[in-house]
Amino acid sequence: MPAERLMPTQESADLIDLTRTIADKELRPYVVEYEAKGEFPRELFRTLGRLGLLSLPYPEEYGGGGQPYEVYLQVLEEIASVWASVGVGVSVHALSCFGLFTAGTDEQKKKYLPELLAGDLLGAYCLSEAHAGSDPAAMRTRAVRDGDNYVIRGQKAWTTHGGVADFYKVMARTSDDGGAGISCFLVSADSPGLAAATPELKMGLRGSTTSSMLFDDVRVPADRRLGEEGQGLRIALAGVDAGRLGIAAVATGLAQSALDVSVAYAKERETFGKPIIEHQGLAFILADMAAAVESSRATYLAAARLKDAGRPYRRQASIAKLVATDNAMKVTTDAVQVLGGAGYTRDFPVERYMREAKVMQIFEGTNQIQRLVISRALNR
Ligand SMILES: Cc1cc2nc3c(=O)[nH]c(=O)nc-3n(C[C@H](O)[C@H](O)[C@H](O)COP(=O)(O)OP(=O)(O)OC[C@H]3O[C@@H](n4cnc5c(N)ncnc54)[C@H](O)[C@@H]3O)c2cc1C
Questions:
Q1: Pairing state of beta strands 194-196 and 210-221?
Q2: CA distance 41 to 50
Q3: For residue 365, how far is its CA from the centre of ligand 1 (angstroms)?
Q4: Residue 86's CB: how many other CB atoms inside 10 A?
Q5: Ligand 1 pocket, 345 CB below 6 A?
Q6: Is 204 near ligand 1, meaning CB less than 6 Å away?
Q7: pLDDT tier at 27 (50, 70, 90 boundaries)?
Q8: Cα of 317 to ligand 1 centre, how many Å?
Q9: Is residue 32 very low, low, confident or very high in pLDDT (cuts 50, 70, 90)?
Q10: Active-site residue flag, 35
Q11: C-beta of 171 in contact with ligand 1 (< 6 A)
Q12: pTM (2 d.p.)
C-alpha cells in the first residue's frame, strides 16, 4: 500500500507519482540481482540523474530541481522503499554537493555546481578515517599548501561510492589545531595519486560500494578548497545534519516496505483456521509497526520543515535520524517474525531489510552520537 502523503503542492504530488513509476520500472527489477552480486548499479544512477532525481534539493539556477527538503526527502523515501542502497546513494550524492553549495564562493558554485548536478556525475564524501569515525576531529589525513595547489596525503575510510564516484568532498587537516585545523576540498576522481582500496564485504546494503580512499600526494588546485582553511569540520558537520535527514527518510522507506510485505503476508497466511492478521497477538505487532513508520515520517518531516524555513534544525535532525533508524530496526526485525520461518529465508525480502536497517543505526553518526547531540542541546 503506498504511503499516504499530504504534499504541499500539486507539482510535488505529481513528483511523488512519477518517482513511484520510475522506481517500479527502473529499480525494482534489478534489486535482488545486484544485492546478491554485491554490485553497484552505476547505470541506474545515470538514469536517475537524467530524470532529475539526483539534484532535487538544489536551486534551479545551478541545474537543481529547486525542491524543498519536505519534498526531496519524501521522494528519497519512495526510492528507498524500493531499493535502500540506491536511496542511500541519492542521499550521499546530495551531501557531496552540500559543501560547495553552502560554503563555495559564487565563482566556485557557477564553475562546478551545474556539472555536479547535471546528472551524469556521482559524488562521495570522505570524512571518516579508521581511527576517526565518531570523532572526526581526530583525523590525520593532511593537505599541505604548495603554491597554487594543496597536496593531500593519507587514507579515508568507509567512503560510500569510493572508487565509483566522479568527485569527492574531502576533509583533510591543514593544521594541528584539532577540529579547527581541518579544511574541505572538492577532489576529482581522476586526480593522480587517488585510488580506492578493495570494497568492504558488508552484512547488507551490498549494492552500495563502500571503500577506503588512498591519497598518495594528490594535488588539488587551491581554488577547489571550499570555505576558508580551518572551516572544513564545520562545513562537514552542517552537511551531516542534512544527511541525517536523508538517512531518516531512507530508513522510513525501508520500514514502510517491511510493513507492507508483513501486512500482505498476514492477510494470506492462515493458522488455526483463519488469516494470522485476525489473531490479535499478531495484529498488534502490525499495529505497532504502522505506528512506528508513521512516527518516523512525521519526525523527519517536522525537522525538514524547520530546515526549509531557514530555522536551526541540528537537534531535530538528530532526533529524526535516531527515531527513524531505531524504528526501522524494530520494524524490519518484527517483519521477519510476522513471516515466521519464511521471513528467515531469501524467498522474501524482509531478512534483507533487517540487515539493511542495521547500518542505518551506524552511519551518518551512530545513534549514540545522535543522543550526544540531542543531550548537549538540552544542556545548553
Ligand atoms: C556502510 C557504511 C557507509 C559509510 N559511508 C561513509 C561515507 O560515505 N563517508 C564517511 O565519511 N563515512 C562513512 N561511514 C562511516 C561512518 O560514519 C562511521 O562508521 C560511524 O561514524 C562510526 O564510526 P566508527 O565506525 O569509527 O565507530 P567508532 O567511532 O569506533 O564507535 C564504536 C562504538 O562506540 C560508540 N561511541 C563512540 N564514541 C562514543 C561516545 N562519545 N559516546 C557513546 N558511544 C560512543 C559508537 O556509537 C559505536 O557504537 C560509513 C560507514 C558504513 C558502515
A1: antiparallel
A2: 15
A3: 6
A4: 27
A5: no
A6: no
A7: very high
A8: 17
A9: very high
A10: no
A11: no
A12: 0.98
